[in-house]
Structure formats: C-alpha cells, structure tokens
Amino acid sequence: MGSWHIIFTLGIFLAAGLLAGTLGELFRLPKVTAYLLIGVILGPAILDLIPHEHLEELKPLTDLAMALVLFGLGNHFTLSRLRRLFKRVLPLSVGEVLGTFFIVFVGLLLVGESPGAAILLGALAIATAPATTILVLKEMQSEGPISEYTGILVALNNLISIIAFEVIFVAVFFLQGDSAHASVLPQLGHLLLDIFGSVFIGVFGGLMISYGSSIIKGSRRLIMFVGLIALALGLCRTTGVPYMLTFLAMGFTVANSLAEEDVPKVEAELYPLTGFLCVLFFIIHGAELKPQQFIEAGLIGGSYIVLRLVGKYIGIFIPARMRGEEPEVSLWLGTALFAQAGAAIALSAIAVSRDPVLGGHLQTIILGSVVFFEIVGPIMIRQSVLRAGEVPLIHAIHHTAGDPISEFQSMIRRFLVSFGLLSEIDQPPDQILVEQLYRKNVKGIAQTATFNEVISFIEHSHDNTFPVIGPNEEVVGVIRYQDLSNTLFDPKIGSLVRAADLANNLETVVYPDDSLARVWSKFREGSYDCLPVVSREQPHRMLGVIRRWEILKYYIKGHRSAQNQDGK
Asked: 423 or 314: whose pLDDT is higher?
C-alpha cells in the first residue's frame, strides 16, 4: 500500500530507527534487534506501511552497508595478528564448521529431510551474519578473546559456507543425474573464477585506497574511500561475483599495505557513514522478514534451528576444552556465532534460480529460520560478551531485564535527567565498587615470556602497564613502557631477557570490593593508566584490570550532570 515518494520512506525509516534505538535502550535490547523489530512492524507482517518497490529500490544502500561492515572487519586482519591467532583459532574453526555441518546434515536426515536438501542446509548452516555480529560487538565495546576470535570466525564461516555450498550443489546435481558430467568441471571452474575475481577486485581496491590515503588529505579522503568501495561493489554486482569476499580482501589489503597507525583512521572516517547505513540495513531487512515463514518452515525449519544452535555450541565447546582454552571461550564463543542472514539468504536465492523446486524448499527454511536467528542472535551475542566478562559490569547493568514498573521508573528518571532535574549518576564514587567497572577477561604476560613475546603482547594492547603473571595466575609484578627502553635499543640483551627480568615490584593493586573513590586516589598517586584487580581470597590472583580512562569517563558524566543542575 502507499504511493508516496521514496524519500518519504527513507524519512520513515530514519525516524523509526531513532525511535527503535531509544526503545532498545529502554527495554535493554541490542540496537540491532530493536531495528529489526521496528522493521518487522513497518513491513507486511504487521502494518504493511512500506511499498514493496521501495524496499527493492533501497537495496543498493543495504549492499553498501554490508560492504562497509566487511571492509571494516577485514581492516582488523593484519598478518601479524593472524599469525598470532592462527594456531588458536584454526582448531576452533575446524571444530565449529564440521560440528555445525554434520549435526545439521545428520539431524535433518533423521527427521525425514531428503539427502540433497539436508547436505545443502548443512553447508548453509555454517554461515554467520557479519553485520549483525560485528555491530553488536562494537555497540558493547567488548574486549577479550571471544570478541577477537568471533571476528575471524565470522569471516571464515562465510567463506567456507559459500565454497561448500557451491561445490555440494554441483555434486548433488551430478549424483542425481540432473547434470551431465561434462558440466561439472565448468561449474567448478566458474566457482574458482568467482573466488579469484572477488579477491582480485578486493586486493586492487585495497591497494588503491592505501595509495590514495597517502596523497589525498582532508574531507576528500572520505569521498575516495566511498567512491572506491562503491566502484568495487558495482563491479561485483555487474559481473555476479560474490562481494562478501571482495570487501574482506579489500580490508585485509588496506590493513597490511597502509601504515599501521593510519589503519584506524580509515575506519574512524568511515564509521559515521557505516553506522547510518547499518540502521537502514537492519530496518529494511526487518521489513523484509515474514514471521509467517517461520511457521511455514514446519518441522524441518524448527529442526534446522535447533540443530544449528547445537552445532555451533558443541563445535566450539569440544575443541576449546581439548585445547585448554579459557572456560569463557568454551562456554560463550559458540553462542556469539548464532546470528544468520546475508550469506545464507543470498545462497538460497541462487539455489532458487538454478532449481526452483529444491531451491524454493531451501529458501523457505532459510527465510523462516532467519526470523529467529536475526532477533535472538544479537541478544545471545550480547549475553556472550557480558557473561564472559569482556564488558565492564556497569555496562551490563543497563542491559539486564527488569519488570515493567522498574522500566517505567527508569524512563521517568531519564526524562528528568535530560532536563537537569535529576543527577545522571545517583551513586557517589564511594559507593561504586571496582567489580562494577573492571574488565574481567583480560590476560597478563607470563613471567617466562621471551622479550619478543612481551613486545607482541604490548603491540596488541591498549594500555601502558602490563601485569606479569606467575604459574598460579598470581600477579608477580608489572611492566611499563619506560621499562623497555634500554632493552629495545640493545638487541643482544633482548635475546636473553624474560618478562620476569623486566617486571617491577608490585606497588599497587586493587580489589573488587574497593570503592571507586579509593581507586581513583591510587591513580592520582602514580602514572599508571591501568591497575591489576586481584582477589582477596587468593592473594594476588589476577581477576582483570581497571583503567584510568573508564573511571575518568564516569566522573565526567557526573560533572556534566552537576553542571546541568547548576545551570537550571
């Protein structure tokens, strides 16, 4: 229904996005879920307010949003980082991919699905929604192994899913006798050409961005970034090559060809545009969701959902336990990979174009299950990083479910705060405890680490103070940047040094039950930018770190609130 101009639809989406973000905070939902739900309300499922042709006409904006997210994801994959993580992530990736594939495949066979459809759904189950997953992690500002591993696993999942689906689809047709043997090799050749073409476009575009960044300055850089990304996206759409791989390759190329200190600047310049387009992406995506398809998927669809959840969880849990990963990784990494949308939907659409009967069946199941995965997935991602301790507890407080009365009181309180009639921070610093602010899932440097291992740890850290950990997870000292100066410029000494040789005596620690005011006084006494948080019950066992800037940010909020009250 409706015949208004598409710009009016765009305005509706942006206003709805603003409302959804506010309601998401009020009801403690991830913003991604709030955007999807408001899209469902605006779409044919409920209000049927948006003309269908407008959704189609806005598709290029959603494609650009996905391209920017994938480009940003690729920006984090420097070779040094991949080398550092490869040995740890590879077994987890293999376990998760194989576990998901075989559990879905075998489980669907047991509930009566045909072998061809079951094996293709097993391949589709591997894919993880990149935009949903990455944006929830950014919203939470999480930091730790789960956040780090998730980005790499998302990229690997989609790459493996695309390749596995294409190869299996050709094999299914061949084994069913629906395709001549002579056509198998050309189809596999076409797949390899698509992969090569995607990587080539991405690498070439990434090199152009790196080169352009060195000669183009100011606001023109944003034009160059968006222009090159749009050209690459248009080329992918014109030639039909899968663009997801293109922009991962483009981001990876920029990360490894641009000066290390300039890579974050590229992402920072693109972030406002990425955030803006992603709001549209999720609202439009939500408007396209049809909850009735969840019912239409029936027993097979419901089984696919359950089996995929089990596959993701078990596929991570078993190899993580076997390799001795942190308990948080084995318990929560699998749940951070539940979201599914883009790649699975695109591949099911390809299946429809090749075989309307088989493809239509696959598409019904995928579209039905996406309704579940895209709404529940962001909630599980958020819970994963919260439960794993990769987000300070004070952030988690604002995302804990409450009853309607407390939610109403919270809404009234926010309203009063906005007018300066109530302080934004209702607890004085001597009542806020360290356990509400510190980051739990942060590791220190083993005292036996070599000098090169110490340098590698520091390169990937945000701090200037690094706890040194003994064999029983106790803090035995700290290393600061200035302590490294002599060793850095004497290679002969560096080859003999261990972390224990560089560590200073432990002068200051804090405990979870220390007050914020007490900890701030310790920061003011020294030059530390973070302090180790240790257990009282097990002396000096490291629990995490608390950072100066996070406490300062808390004080600034209180100062601004006080200024607003004085101004009134």
From this structure: 314
CB-CB neighbours of 431 under 10 Å = 11
Residue 325 host element (H or E): none
Distance CA 152, CA 99 (A): 17
Residues pairing with 546 in the sheet:
531
pTM: 0.72
**pLDDT over threshold 90, residue 12:** yes
Q: Higher-confidence residue: 454 or 299? A: 299
Q: 């591993």: which residue's tokens? A: 149
pLDDT in tens, 275-325: 899 999 889 988 888 888 778 778 899 999 999 999 999 999 999 999 888
- Residue 428's pLDDT is what? 59
Question: Rounded distance, CA 230 to CA 75, Å?
Answer: 17
Question: Could you tell me the two tokens for 22?
Answer: 């506010």
Q: What's the CA gap between 16 and 26, in Å, rounded?
A: 15
The secondary structure element, H or E, covering residue 544 is strand 542-547
pLDDT at 163: 85
Helix H, strand E, coil C: the string for 213-255 is: HHHCCCCHHHHHHHHHHHHHHHHHHHHCCCHHHHHHHHHHHHH
Torsion of CA 381, 387, 393, 399, to 10 degrees: 40
CA atoms within 13 A of residue 301's CA, in its CB half-sphere: 21
Predicted confidence band at 400 (pLDDT cuts at 50, 70, 90)?
very low
The residue among 342, 68, 96 whose CA lies nearest residue 230 is: 68
| 3-state SS, residue 30 | coil
Strand, coil or helix: what is 159?
Answer: helix
Mean of pLDDT over the chain: 81
Q: Rounded distance, CA 362 to CA 368, Å?
A: 10
- Contact present, 258 and 266 (Cβ < 8 Å): yes
**3-state secondary structure labels for all residues of 174-215:** HHCCCCCHHHHHHHHHHHHHHHHHHHHHHHHHHHHHHHHHHH
Task: Extract the tokens encoding 71.
Answer: 């480009």
Give me the residue label for tokens 């899913």.
161
Q: Of all residues in the chain, what percent carry a pLDDT higher than 90?
A: 28
What are the tokens at 497?
Answer: 């040094």
- Which of the two residues, 376 and 420, has the higher pLDDT score? 376
DSSP, collapsed to helix, strand or coil, labels residue 442 as: coil
- 521: which 2 tokens? 């006084």
499 half-sphere exposure, CB direction, 13 A CA radius: 27
The CA distances from residue 350 to 84, 252, 346, 347, in Å, are 37, 27, 6, 5
Alpha-carbon distance of 377 to 127, in angstroms, equals 13
The SS3 of residue 334 is: helix
Query: pLDDT above 70 covers what percent of the chain?
Result: 83
For residue 115, give every residue at least 6 positions away whose Cβ sits within 8 Å of its Cβ, in sequence order, or none.
109
